[in-house]
Amino acid sequence: SPDLASAVKFYDSLVLLYPDDHDLQFLQANAYYYKGVMASMQNEDLEATRSFLHVLSLMEKNGPNQENADDERFIALTHTRLGEVLYYYGINDLARKAFVQAAGLFSDLNDTVALASMLRNEAAICQAEKSYDLALAKFSEAQELVPIDSVVFCHSIGCKLYEMQQFDSAAAYLERSFDLEDRFARTDAASRLADIYRRSGELEKEVYYTRYYVGNALMESNLASAKMEIEFLCSTQEKSAESAADSSQNADLQRFLIPMLLVLIVFAILAYV
User: What's the predicted TM-score (pTM) here?
Assistant: First the structure.
């Protein structure tokens, strides 16, 4: 069903009745995960982010079952989905953090295919930040794990050739990267291709890529509001997690201090006597 609200409510109510049932909590988290997936498919990215963050909060609160690899894989997949949404909005620091956490879990599971995918995601972020050497290093690391079509390298190579003013060679790579689904690579490629074809006097191609670049700039402004809301959601979640960690540390400190105080009181009484 496209509407998973009833399933989410059902599991929420059951968890209230059976708060110690780990399997039930796992089903509850899954309900929120698929709610987030459906929201993402319907371009409701704010709701998707809210759902994925709630999944991670639930799994952190209840703790993964160390005897069940499905828990770790599920958390890794949730980090991946969240990272994809964050990357789409250009929230690169948080997206990188999500992909790194997913990569660590996939590494523990010995899933080289998924690990290579996370490394390529990290490389895409480096590429979007115009750190092309680092992007190529990440792509190469992923390629060693799971070789795929070398088209993944084309944008970084094209940009480096462009910076070296080897425009004819750069155009071939940048046109390939423009055909990829990565909107940041497409936008960057469009701006450079427009400049290359302006230099060569190919007006029709220059206009085509310029129009794409300008249209994407307008789309960026339309996404600004949702981006701010998503950043706020993530920062709120992070602060809540830090607050919970501090509370836990304070509770542990109190459990340690109370016996110590009692021992000191006993010693003080004995010394007085």
Answer: 0.82
